UniProtKB/TrEMBL annotation:
Its cofactor is FAD. Signal peptide: none annotated. It is an enzyme of class 1 (oxidoreductase). It catalyses: a long-chain 2,3-saturated fatty acyl-CoA + oxidized [electron-transfer flavoprotein] + H(+) = a long-chain (2E)-enoyl-CoA + reduced [electron-transfer flavoprotein]; a medium-chain 2,3-saturated fatty acyl-CoA + oxidized [electron-transfer flavoprotein] + H(+) = a medium-chain (2E)-enoyl-CoA + reduced [electron-transfer flavoprotein]. PANTHER family: ACYL-COENZYME A DEHYDROGENASE, MEDIUM-CHAIN SPECIFIC ACYL-COA DEHYDROGENASE, MITOCHONDRIAL-RELATED. It comes from the Bacteria. This is Acyl-coenzyme A dehydrogenase.
Amino acid sequence: MLTLTLLVLAIAGLLIVMRREAGALPALAVTAGLGLVGLVAGASILGVLLMIAAAAITVCGLPALRTRWLTPRLFALFKKVAPKVSDTERTALEAGSVAWDGELFTGRPDWKKLLDYRDEGLSDEERAFLDHQCSVAAGMCNAWEIARERADLPQELWDYLKQEGFFGMIIPKAYGGLGFSAKAQSLVLQKLSVSETLMVTVGVPNSLGPGELLLKYGTEQQKDHYLPRLADGREIPCFGLTGPRAGSDATALPDTGVVCKQMVDGEEVLGLRLNFEKRWITLAPIASVVGLAFRLFDPDQLLGEEEDRGITLALIPRDTDGMEIGRRHHPIGSPFLNGPIKGHDVFVPLSTIIGGPEMIGQGWRMLVECLSIGRCITLPSGATGTARYALGWSGGFARIRRQFNVPVAEMEGIQEPLARMAALAYVSRAAVYQTANTIDHGEKPAVPSAILKSQLTEFQRVILGDAMDIHGGKAVTLGPRNYLGIGYSANPVAITVEGANIMTRNLMIFGQGAIRCHPYVLEELAAKDADDAAAFDRSFFGHAGLIFGNAARALTQGLGLGQPSVPFDEIAAPYARDIARLSAGFGLCADAAMASLGSQLKQREMLSARLGDVLSNLYLASMTLKQWHEGHKVEGEAALLHYGCRFLLGRAEQALDELFDNLPSRALGRTLRVIVMPTGRRWKRPEDTLTREIAQNVSRDTPLRRHLLDATWQENDGSRDNPLARYNALLASQERAEALYRRVNKAYAKGQLPAEALHPEARVEAALAAGLIGEEDATFMQEREAAVLELLTVDDFAYDAFVTDKTKVLRHQPA
């Protein structure tokens, strides 16, 4: 009995020490103290084992001893097996900043640090712009007209965007821009995503474009000249990075610049001779100024002894001799302006280099740092806005579309995708808004930008697929009335650009995060590069303490012991505690994968992707909890929080489960499963009761629906047809209509109305004639049915309307 008691005390004491990462001395006190008790009290075998453990802790854990014999050996081994970090990778790792993503790597996330990023909301100016200018711009769009009739935005919309400063949201007011916060930019793009072409047209100049690069790195002369002209639309920018052979591997640029001298207007000028071929460049066909990335060489050593000067960025006017620009690509599903740029022996002076000659060779760092912010906002905001519009349209359609004498919104087959759409839209909105809020607090979120870009555009793909399924024939028939089909077909663009989702998920999220966000790995690599044994000792044994700590936290919390304190209400707290549990498990698994696979982990992309999935889902769930904590909650919102968090945490557990099954070391996989999930998986798919509740709420005029559609284009001002406004109007009178539907259909079923009254309009007329409803109700229903029929109607065209070459039309039947 004594032996069992001492064993339990030893395990409990060591788990407490490990959970707190208290270090070697407390662990030594536990093992030596209990070992001494065992020897004295007669539990000699356990006492000896504990004293041996105490001796091992002494020689391995106390710095004064281990630095003499253990650290040098470990350091030598580490230098042999540590992955080599290239200059390109190091630049990416050092770009941006680490915030909540780093907390999730620790296994003990401090929620106070997340909540310290307080949301101050929008300024009055930003809110007014969102309410007015964005509504006016959205009201000038029709997807069919833009995609099929113009292949461009209307001229009056271009003029309005320039007039109101849409292209200068990120440019400070001192240069004539709007100087908006990141949150305001995100909400503007969400509202404009009623048209993907409009969103892209506004988003790109405010993201990875010359404007942001000039702001951060431009010379004062460059800023003074270009920023006011970019802000008011006198200059339309584009940025040429990708090309036929440089896509995901953007550092493999084959485009070159050579330092040379050339006579210009009778004067010898020192400059660059550029040769390049770029593709997929948004706004290139109409751009007046081109940002260009290229590899710079100085073979004649005109700038110094170094010949290969590295990736460099320049800003080149459209009319520069030798540049070919103006042709268009045809992006799938959307006519946003995108095209190739070529240049042969294009000469430009050194003054065109962004930031001047001092920034030669700094192009990759400049691009990565700008991407860490721009990629957090543009595409994630577009995906979120698209999700919310698709939800609004689908909820409205499902309520007014009747089959079997009931709205299809009452059918569980429709309720399931409708609830999923609502939950993913809710999570997306929280994640992009709260991440933008951290940007407004000075963060440059590199890893979260990869998470948001890949995850939210994948959510968009799911949501649009669900919306198409709900709409059926309404959405698969293109024409001016189809508000969904063109956006659905354009979705692959968002999946592919700014870092294709396959690459981002498999290589970037964990591949970058494992080093950038980990509390110790970057320090260990820096110690290796500096050959600093003392720094290595501190970071390596701190890392070891973290591993033991995460193992203890994952195991005890998995068993329901020692749950962390979290600053949330009773609805959100269980999810926050489980995020902490899975964070500990994730940290342990990340270290186990890196230790067991070493540099091979780079090639084991499926394992890396699963670890990235865990991090992504924990990050999205954290942002959702913060939004809940700070937001103005509405009736029915708790169901969305439950659905969203259970969905995300279930996906995180699924990724861990698959990781355990696929680690090369089966023993390691089984051990990790026991530690991280000692009682198995906790989270399953959300219950049907949640699904039904959410679907009912988003397909009716409810506070939850209005909350989810806040800051979307819902005005019905007559400038363009707004289906969302029409659905909202019909839902506002839905209760009255449903009562009349029931009365009229019941009368028809009883034979009180003529059998030939098959259409709703005929039944209403017959019910009026039979005295079952009054004149006012009949008029209401007739007007309503006309509005419903218009929303259900699809377009048709002349037989040869889609044939571009009329001579090739086949006339199968006589005219």
